[in-house]
Amino acid sequence: MKTDELLKILCSADGISGFEDDTAALASELLRDAGADSVYTDALGSVHAVFEPQGEPVRTVLLDAHMDEVGLMVSGICDNGMLKFVSIGGIDARVLPAMRVKIHGRRDYFGVITNLPPHITSSADYKKAVPPDEMFIDAGLSHDEACENIAVGDAVSFFTPAGMLLNERYLSKALDDRSGMAAIMYASERLRGKLGSTRVHVLFSTQEEFSLSGASAGAYASGADMCVCVDVGHAKTPDSKSDDTFELAGGPMIGVAPSLKKSMSDELRALAETLGIEHQIEVMGGSSGTNAWSIAIAGRGIPCALISIPLRYMHTGAEAAAVSDITAVGELLSEYVMSKDKEGS
Amino acid sequence: MTVELIETLCRIPGVTGDEAAVAAEIECRMSTAGCETSYDKMGNLIVKKKGKMRPKTPVTLYAHMDEVGLIISKIDKDGFLRFKTVGGIDPRVLLSKTVFVGEKRVRGVIGVKAVHLQTKEAREKAPETDKMYIDIGARDEEDAKNHVRLGDFASFDDDIVYFGQRRVCAKALDDRAGCAAIIETLSGELLYDAKAVFTVGEEIGTRGARVGAAEADGGVAVIIETTTCADFDGVPENKKVTRLGEGPAISFIDNSTFYDPALVRFALSCATENDITHQVKKSGAGGNDAGAVSQGFGGHKVLSVSMPCRYLHSPSSVISLDDYDNTKRLIAALIIKLGEQGYEY
């Protein structure tokens, strides 16, 4: 499947941390279609898919991307039927006023986040961000209707029409980390029938935005010998410092950090050079802030590498990524697994 | 008809200064409905409909065609667009919202750097429009210039959602909802002649109505609008202005008009006699074309009938279709009452 088609499918699902079931169902279907030998869901809701090699497996490579996205959760119902909420995952509350959302109650309900019109806003108010506890979700329901159909603890996801910007740059919520899932799907399809002794274990993990716990549990269960995590990294924007950010459409960001396996990072860099895949090096001083942090110390330890997809506007309802970057990550990933396979037993 | 009409009108981009497409749509519908249509030098669309009888006091209905939005003021070297707001927009509703730019309707997003890269202090301050940018996915300035010109208008995302208790969420309900109510009224059989002026330039100072006021000579002008509705928790009672679902609001005063109290009582009793749910606008905040029409060309008697509209001037404004229906009923009743009884002054 083409990268943009994969993105369209994967981003259409909702799944804030702890509520990944719909995304998991969709991912399982995609993995079965891609020819996985077994697909199952573990106790924390993460999806596992095993692709067996042609011959006797001598190593297992784990490919991880997280399924969950940031969002909101209903924390109360007002007398007038409006909903109070809290954030799940790191969200800049300044993106919320007038944002459209989907409330996952008894069924899905549409909602708008409240804001005051300029006509009754004082000039002092204009200068400060709206405090999150002064905003509500307006689902257009009366108090009774709201109580009947929506409960405290229900998940709320961003509702942004996805679409393509110029130059094949995709705009959607949840590209963090559905774009990583898309890259792994692309790699899995590319690896189909090509591996002699390497088992590929795909892990689409839960709760990354909350605690990295899905990856930690899932990686242990995989019994993998090594892992490549695919997540997103910050792409340049006019309001960010160029030291902290990377080029959109500049290719995969290969992570280098004390918490990552140096030899794997080196191999990825050398491979990208050899294959002529345009790439960028992301250097981190300690944690990578991704599942690689927890997977590396899962079980008896799993050496980890990290490849990130440059992403603009991370953790908003409208994130932007270049399709070419995602495809390139998928290519690098599959080539890396093939290079391991060529090492034989 | 209502739903299709509101949807069609709201979807058309028509930021102040660029109302032609809205006018064309209305003109087409009105001439199909047997009305006489013409334009004045400002671009206001004037529509006349013959009734069975000549009214004692003729009614001229007003609704404005323009909507708040953005205008592109600069294209930077990296291909991001800088903009100015057109009409009163609180910058706090803009971050991470999607827009369509120019005649080619190029999709873009008002970006904001990721929460991870923001300081706590920055997150507590309101964002400023002059620091914002629109990302259309362009590679650089030259690429962007192939798709966008300086001075192009950008309008909010045109996705429309029907939800909750007969609610509509869309951009531009201010005042396409008013336009729609007038179109529906004049499309039916009328007992008395009636006239409508669909004005331009309301959002930057009721400029179209200054010229369009001429059409109200010899009768009563009724401005069909949307107005502030901040009926939720945490808003002081005097700033709530109206309540959603409790009918069209009739104004006694706003920041540009002192309505003739006897005429207001005439309208209130018209609503009561016809059993039409209505309310009195409980604040002098805001203003509309009524000010310009009441002062223009030697002065006119004016009324304002406004649909309560939550999140006015944001990308996600909300009205109630119950209020819309009652607004239509009130317009029809006023045409009859003024036609039959007349209003002496």
Task: Give a description of the structure.
The complex is a heterodimer of chains A (345) and B (345). Chain A is globular, with a radius of gyration of 21 Å. In chain A, helix 1 packs across helix 5 and helix 5 (175-191) packs across helix 9. With 345 residues, chain A is an alpha+beta fold. Chain A has two domains: 3-69 and 173-342, Zn peptidases (Aminopeptidase); 71-158, Beta Barrel (Elongation Factor Tu (Ef-tu), domain 3), CATH 2.40.30.40. Chain A contains nine helices and 17 strands. In chain A, strands 1, 2, 3, 10, 11, 12, 13, 14, 15, 16 and 17 form an eleven-stranded mixed β-sheet that branches. By secondary structure, chain B is of the alpha+beta class. Chain B folds into two domains: 2-67 and 171-340, 3-Layer(aba) Sandwich (Aminopeptidase), CATH 3.40.630.10; 74-154, Elongation Factor Tu (Ef-tu), domain 3 (Beta Barrel), CATH 2.40.30. Chain B has ten helices and 17 strands. In chain B, strand 4 (69-75) and strand 5 form a beta hairpin. In chain B, helix 1 (2-11) packs across helix 5. Chain B is globular and about 65 Å long. At the A-B interface, strand 7 and strand 10 of A face strand 7 of B.
